[in-house]
Design goal:
With 83 residues, this protein is an all-alpha fold. The protein is built from 2 helices and no strands.
């Protein structure tokens, strides 16, 4: 049996917004090496770093799994409304 085709926009904007926020946080981690270049500081060494550098490095460890999880949810929702 075929599933009905959705006639209106079925995207969950909250998921897309949250994925966008996660992408911005991951961007911080990817450009952090340029901010920290030449200093030789390990951002995960609590004795050698400051709070903001440690926090941005720590929070980005959560971003990648959350991004993949939300992508999976989006794929499931998309397949649930497609033919």
């Amino acid at each position: 049996m075929l599933k009905p085709i959705a006639t209106e926009n079925t995207r969950e904007r909250k998921i897309d917004i949250f994925r966008g926020i996660l992408m911005l946080l991951m961007l911080l981690d990817h450009i952090r090496t340029y901010w920290n270049a030449g200093y030789g500081i390990d951002p995960l060494d609590i004795n050698a770093t400051n709070f903001s550098l440690f926090f941005t490095r720590w929070i980005t460890h959560i971003c990648a799994p959350a991004f993949v999880f939300l992508s999976g949810i989006s794929a499931y929702i998309s397949s649930a409304y497609s033919v």
